[in-house]
Amino acid sequence: MIIGLVAGFVWTPALAAPQITETTKTYSVSETTARGLRSEMRNKGPKGFWGYTRWDIRWTPGCRVSARIVYTLPQHSNPDALPDRTRRAFDRMVANLAAHERLHGQNGINAAHEISRANCKGGAAIIRKYNRADKELDRRTNHGARDGVTLD
After folding, report:
1. Rounded CA gap, 134 and 46, in Å?
2. Average pLDDT over residues 87-99
3. Distance of CA 140 to the CA centre of its chain
4. Model-level pTM greater than 0.90?
5. Cβ-contact 151, 37 below 8 angstroms
């Protein structure tokens, strides 16, 4: 019995966990009022958003899956120039924005794991599923505003 289990284990291929790489990029903002910062982030932010997450899933013919997730967030070039109230609001907004973007990143990670579990069959459909999940997340949270991604 033990020999059969060992032999069965030897012949059963093990699924390798996807390789996940997460990086954060920033873009600089310098305005010192909430209104100015909102405008500057809208103009300088990726695709007109204050923050953005891009995930890319790849797999090999042997089903080695990798996910590359890139978060883009604002960073103030001179936070000491901000009035205390605005600085606290900006810092809180960036923290909430980062948390929101990590939810998008988690969708990419989930897609990679699901593709790996499916032995890379139906990968394109799985990616479409998690792209829809990203859109639903933004719809449900109003692009994070309901989760504190605001700057007043």
Report:
1. 16
2. 98
3. 16
4. no
5. yes
